[in-house]
Predict the 3D structure of the following.
Amino acid sequence: MDRKRKIQDNNFYYSLLRPFVDFNCRRSYRRFEVHGQEKLPKDGALIYGINHSNTLMDALVVLATSHHKKVFMARGDIFSNPKVAKILRFMRILPLFRIRNGVAAVKNNTDSMEQAVDVVHDQVGLYLFPEGRHRTKHSLLQLSKGIFHIAMDSNREFGKDQPVYLVPVGIEYGDYFRYRSTCMVHFGEPINVTDFIKESTEENEAVLMNQLRAMMSERISKLITYIPDDDDYDATWEIVKMKNEKRAGGLYKKMLRNRATVGKIQQYQQEHPEEAKSLFERVMQFSQDRVKNKISVTSTAKKRPLLNSLWKLLVAIVGFPYFVASTVANAIVWIPTLIIKSKLKDPAWSNTVCFGGKMLVSPLVFIGGTIALFCTLPWYWALAGAVALFFSYDIWFDYQELVRRMVSDIRWAFKTKLRKEYRNLNLNKLF
């Protein structure tokens, strides 16, 4: 590994590619929101701890939140291939080894930790996913200690010159598996590690580290729709979706409504444990029936689903020629991605695969198609065709989602028994 050049140093090729990657990442979502950046300190070293729920997309959406320089840390086993390790370093990713990687591998952490401390010393943001692995849940695993070791090592080395902060970050997705869903990145209240250690009477570093871990975990959980990962998780999340899926107001307000609903459910559990248990069983039965009938949870919020489906039908009819043209034009993109996704052992990688196809192949489709259009059509028709081609991959997905929801609304309108089952849950009165 080249030690003459710091990982955070400027790199012409990285700087050239970065805007293109950020642009494609943001366009991977119908709505992309960033909140809380005004809370970030301007006077110190920042180490970011982020919840990890959607594979590589987690790092990409955080990268796209600003144009500031960022360095990430990832699990060390993906660096085992020297060529891959070189690419990851170019992408400004440092390895962080765990005991499961073997004692010999863990020894390499000394070098990584030194580089990590050097990154934050230069006031470049260091970003970690302290849960250690991704998991498609609105919950949080116990945070590993690596991020807190780096924070305390940084404070020990240069805390007298500049404060060290731990910044909690929460990522909230509308759907973990559907491309072109929604994404919100939420920055929370930083922890001033320098002041925390200075003001603490505790001298045991292990105890201080556990206290920081508890604080960080609590703050991250407040930035997302947090549901305890217990036996009632699935039922709770189903209720939250049915209550809040279609309300307007942006992703941040939706997250607040979700959190409020979770709080009401937990209160109901405490006050009426037997009734709550019965309710959860009925909710899960309804959920199974809903999925079996291929009805989207968004349809359950519709009072007049058949009427609601009419405007979708109109848009689908008008947009059908464009969808067909987009299907043909982007076949070289979507066919390989469908094949790759069909072979995935972990479906959480689906969005990453779609993003990769869009970023790597779509530009070639656009360039080739634009050249062909200008060679065969008058310039004004060619220009219109080029604009339509530019948006075609995204709209191809959006059209399918529109049709899926339209069909779901129609099915919901005619499932009288299932709608009665939903009404009997009485969710609006309970929560």
User: Anything to note?
Assistant: The radius of gyration is 24 Å.
